[in-house]
Amino acid sequence: QVQLVESGGGLVQAGGSLRLACVASGRTFGNYAMAWYRQAPGKEREFVAAISSGGSTYSTDSVKGRFTISRDNAKNLLYLQMNSLKPEDTAVYYCISGSRFIPFAPIGSWGQGTQVTVSS
Questions:
Q1: How far is CA 108 from CA 6, 32, 56, in A?
Q2: Contacts from 40-43 at CB under 8 Å and sequence distance 24+?
Q3: What is the Cα–Cα distance from 99 to 114, expressed in whole angstroms?
Q4: What is the per-residue pLDDT across 47-100, written as a single tens digit (0 to 9) for each?
Q5: For site-directed labelling of 55, which of 29, 48, 85, 101 has its Cα 20 to 30 A away?
Q6: Which of 41, 118, 47 is nearest to 83 (CA)?
Q7: What is the structure's pLDDT at 1?
Q8: Is the dihedral of CA 54, 2, 44, 113 positive or negative?
């Protein structure tokens, strides 16, 4: 089973940028689709973006043109580049592996996540 640790969150002003990273343990990282989810206070966890093992990507409409998901299979790393951040992007962000790319189906355990706070 892949274990995941997120990092890179922080406090940023609206319009700013952050890059999140997720390091995965295990030798099979490259075989899985991966995704980022987020959970804002008082809300359900929601899908943000996904990437297939081969590098195809898609994202939810609210982040299109602002967020970019990428991966480095040689280093077992998943990234989320977040630009033009908005206060409504404030949430805890989680990475997760998936049993299906489209629609994405999370599998395995969720990590602790990384907090992103965007001030207005």
A1: 15, 11, 21
A2: 40/88, 40/90, 40/91, 41/91, 43/91
A3: 23
A4: 999 999 999 999 999 999 999 999 999 999 999 999 999 999 999 999 999 999
A5: 85
A6: 118
A7: 67
A8: negative
